[in-house]
Design a protein that fits this description.
Two copies of one chain form a homodimer.
Chain A: H1 18-23, E1 34-35, E2 46-52, E3 57-59, E4 67-73, E5 76-81, E6 87-93, E7 98-99, E8 110-113, E9 117-123, H2 124-133, H3 135-161, H4 164-173, E10 178-180, E11 183-187, H5 192-199, H6 203-215, E12 219-223, E13 226-229, H7 232-239
Antiparallel strand pairs in A: 1-2, 2-9, 3-8, 4-7, 4-9, 5-6, 5-8, 10-11, 11-13, 12-13
Chain A binds a DNA duplex through helix 6.
Chain lengths: 244, 244
DNA sequence: CGGCATGTTGAAACGTTTCAACGAGAGTGG
DNA sequence: CCACTCTCGTTGAAACGTTTCAACATGCCG
């Protein structure tokens, strides 16, 4: 079915001389134009902020992993594309999340901007430097990896045994939700195709499952990118397989 | 369908006083009865060897993660069980692999012995101690986590978009194989149900896919736990979706 | 207002699951 | 050594859910 996939490579000219960074790791803090810190923050705290347009590529699978990133604004998807053009999204990242740091030498997935995105970018070698200097940073780094692994295992569990409706329900329940008049609203940072690729379904099945939940008044879809959970009890029951 | 699942908890009485270890982390090397080391080894190198019988539980999901383990002999499965009794195996571990170390505080999955198993067990706090003392151990620890994450992402990709036959082909190709007269033999450390639970399929579908490959002379199944790859070109093509 | 990407729905084809029955192999005791 | 039993693996046929292909609707941006 060979869907068209955006493959715009972000050719940012503000990439610093990497060789220089490699040879002089301690100097990496010099060029800092941004400092980001919060209580439960992760090891990427220094770096420069870069913006990506919707569907722009941040890095590609297999590329040398020079940088680690932290989402400042917007959402990022990590995916793998197959020979037949189909795509599996392995993870999403939202503000505060670190990515590009999971692997050793090369990026294990491709990272793309789901929407307009701002990321904090820091050379990995720089993070490593901080990490070995500060046990606390190192601890956070391990913690972050653990969380990613745990998320990946939950994803495996979902794809391995849940039906389309269950996946949709589970998916919606993982997002932050805020109270509105008639339930809890969720702002989806992504479109149907991305949801489908994350859940291992086709876009049509995804739509149908959503329409079905809507028909049964469990959810509402006021706009394309927003859903309202009207009956979170039912939604949870469906998610856990306790109801159809 | 509520399958019967072994839930024998291994009540080993040789568990040392954990509190003691927690309060005196440096002392953990004292009781060493075993030392295991090889060139590409991972951080778990000290500890005692414990044996588990087939289907015995090594630890349960949600339990306090006191120990890290290294497989010495046999195979270990990491799984999550759902409300409906179905099970998703998230990972297998074979000799040399480390497990029980992925998570922060609690075990994220249940670990069970697939066959007769010998593991090297080391208190995590002890590994942490080595890890913070020796940057090289720390590096290996991070490397190991990365590998697990990468494996989990490949697993996600498989469950997300591969057909039953593709999954079986992919699965067989991940094992070590050795040359035999009519192809390459693979010793499966696990039974059909375990394979099915790993691939997110039913045992029947797993069987049928195997029978199909056998009928087409791509593989052979001389015994239940052994398969012979006769046509690895076709098997690879099937795995990658380039052939049905 | 067009034009294009994105989302939705329908009907048939397809693959996997389910339920049921049967076969094969390993271990035990006569 | 055979018969027995129990687990594990295999096969068949119908039911089920997802995908496919096609058409159409909606929203967005120039």
């Amino acid at each position: 079915m060979l869907r068209k996939l955006s493959a715009t490579f972000h050719d940012s000219e503000d990439v610093p001389a990497v060789n220089e960074l490699v040879s002089r790791p301690a100097s990496c803090a010099r060029g800092c134009r941004f400092f980001h810190h919060d209580a439960e923050t992760e090891p990427v705290e220094f770096g420069i902020v870069i913006r990506f347009a919707r569907n722009e590529t941040i890095y590609v699978k297999g590329g040398k992993a020079f940088y680690a990133y932290k989402v400042v604004e917007g959402a990022v998807r990590l995916s793998r594309v197959f020979a037949d053009g189909r795509r599996q999204i392995v993870n999403f990242h939202q503000p505060g999340d670190i990515f590009g740091f999971e692997t050793a030498e090369e990026y294990s997935s491709t990272a793309e901007a789901v929407s307009e995105v701002a990321v904090l970018r820091c050379p990995r070698i720089c993070v490593m430097h901080f990490s070995s200097a500060d046990p606390e940073v190192n601890r956070r780094r391990l913690h972050m990896l653990s969380r990613s692994l745990n998320a990946a295992e939950r994803h495996v569990a979902m794809l391995g045994h849940q039906s389309a409706r269950q996946r949709i329900a589970t998916f919606f329940l993982t997002f932050e939700r805020y109270e509105v008049g008639n339930g809890y609203a969720v702002d989806l940072p992504l479109g149907r195709q991305d949801i489908a690729d994350y859940l291992g379904l086709t876009i049509e099945t995804t739509c149908r499952a959503m329409s079905d939940l809507k028909r049964r008044q469990i959810i509402d879809t006021p706009t394309r990118r927003q859903i309202v959970i009207r009956d979170s009890v039912s939604l949870t029951a469906i998610s856990e397989g306790l109801a159809a």
